[in-house]
């Protein structure tokens, strides 16, 4: 018997095999089906997907064989990975000097015929084989060997898909952690900046109140710049705090929200603006959702509809429907409309598409990004449809219970 040698790049090969995290995993139907198909095509009682570890060959799938691994030094597959063609065929192991006295030839499982195809990973490094075995001499046709090679490609597709899935899951975990850390940083930084900024605003007001008569026009202008810049920065910090907290709403934290109460909340906030009319339309009496989150979304959207409206009479309509598994909210306004090129930009943080609102102030580009984050956190989506001069309609959805309990309406 001649034991198989290690691969020329054995350390790299083992490292690559380890990266698949496949060794000693449970049996899986997809792999089992491939070995069954290999036996059917080649007419052999045994077929195996073998992965060559340091001192053993481990079987990810096996048909016609009860064991899950054997010693590598007795393996045929250990020889297969050295074949330049990646195909290794032994028609009768009993007359081959490499195998004639091999324990798995003279004893169980009585390997006489063997045909294996290398499973090649990155840079052509071999991971193992797909092989078929018989207890008597045999020959395979070219079409059978070709089919075996095709099946080996499918094994590698499964292995690579598994690896990509693990990498994606790891990347998602890292991304969630990074987003969480970024949100925490934004919250802490914004919170720590508010106190000194409030001091600057207070001192600027004091300076203007007590020393304005002693200042020339240039000094008064400088104080005005300080106050204006401080207020802008305060708005930005407040927006960042809201944005960092917007992902903290739980989709499971739901309460019964009467639409009459929701309309009262909206009217209390915006009713002081006599030029503004807000109507709520719905066939529902109540919705079951996260109350704080829904109110934050609507307040942001309605506030924007007011601030960026160019009409003397502001008209806003809120419509609420229940779809299959979702609540759908539509916030319509009679404002100037939003250009098609800007309809996706407005949901990106720090994107500002309007120079000034109706009060002469510039936005921070945080409000709608915050709304989008809250909506998606509640399992929904948000979009806008608009034509220039014809107002805009913001539509968003949030998940609803499949059945609304009668006690909630």
UniProtKB/TrEMBL annotation:
Coiled coil: 156-188
Keywords noted in UniProt: Coiled coil, Kinase, Phosphoprotein, Transferase, Two-component regulatory system
Ranges annotated as spanning the membrane: none
CDD domains in the cross-refs: HisKA (cd00082)
First-level EC class: transferase
SUPFAM superfamilies associated with the record: ATPase domain of HSP90 chaperone/DNA topoisomerase II/histidine kinase, GAF domain-like, Homodimeric domain of signal transducing histidine kinase
Molecular function terms, GO-annotated: phosphorelay sensor kinase activity
Catalysed reaction, written as an equation: ATP + protein L-histidine = ADP + protein N-phospho-L-histidine
Domain Histidine kinase span(s) in chain numbering: 188-402
EC annotation from Swiss-Prot or TrEMBL: 2.7.13.3
Keyword Phosphoprotein included in the entry's annotation: yes
SMART domains: HATPase_c, HisKA
PANTHER family: HISTIDINE KINASE 1 (PTHR43711:SF1), TWO-COMPONENT HISTIDINE KINASE (PTHR43711)
Protein name: histidine kinase
């Amino acid at each position: 018997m001649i034991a198989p040698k290690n691969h020329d790049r054995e350390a790299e090969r083992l490292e690559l095999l380890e990266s698949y995290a496949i060794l000693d995993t449970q049996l899986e139907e997809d792999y089992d089906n491939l070995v069954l198909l290999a036996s059917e095509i080649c007419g052999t009682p045994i077929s195996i997907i073998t992965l060559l570890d340091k001192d053993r060959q481990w079987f990810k799938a096996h048909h016609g064989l009860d064991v899950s691994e054997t010693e590598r030094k007795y393996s045929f597959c250990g020889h297969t990975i050295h074949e330049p063609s990646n195909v290794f065929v032994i028609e009768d192991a009993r007359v081959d000097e490499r195998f004639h006295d091999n324990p798995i030839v003279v004893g169980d499982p009585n390997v006489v015929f063997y045909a294996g195809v290398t499973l090649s990973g990155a840079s052509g490094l071999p991971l193992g084989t797909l092989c078929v075995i018989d207890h008597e001499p045999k020959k395979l046709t070219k079409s059978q060997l070709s089919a075996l090679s095709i099946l080996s490609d499918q094994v590698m597709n499964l292995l690579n898909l598994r690896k990509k899935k693990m990498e994606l899951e790891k990347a998602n975990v890292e991304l969630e952690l990074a987003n969480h850390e970024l949100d925490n940083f934004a919250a802490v930084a914004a919170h720590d900046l508010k106190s000194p900024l409030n001091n600057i605003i207070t001192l600027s007001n004091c300076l203007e109140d007590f020393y304005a008569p002693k200042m020339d026009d240039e000094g008064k202008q400088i104080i005005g710049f300080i106050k204006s810049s401080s207020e802008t920065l305060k708005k930005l910090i407040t927006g960042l705090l809201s944005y960092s907290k917007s992902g903290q709403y739980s989709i499971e934290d739901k309460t019964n929200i009467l639409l009459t109460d929701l309309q009262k909340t909206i009217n209390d906030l915006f009713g002081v603006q006599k030029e503004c009319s807000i109507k709520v339309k719905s066939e529902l009496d109540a919705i079951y959702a996260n109350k704080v989150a829904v109110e934050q979304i609507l307040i942001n959207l309605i506030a924007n509809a007011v601030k960026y409206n160019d009409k003397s009479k502001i008209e806003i309509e809120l419509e609420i429907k229940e779809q299959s598994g979702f609540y759908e909210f539509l916030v319509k306004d009679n404002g100037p409309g939003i250009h098609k090129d800007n309809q996706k930009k407005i949901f990106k943080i720090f994107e500002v598409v309007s120079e000034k609102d109706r009060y002469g102030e510039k936005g921070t580009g945080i409000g709608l990004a915050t709304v989008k984050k809250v909506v998606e956190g509640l399992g929904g989506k948000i979009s806008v449809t608009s034509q220039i001069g014809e107002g805009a309609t913001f539509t968003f959805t949030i998940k609803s219970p499949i059945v609304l309990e009668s006690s909630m309406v």
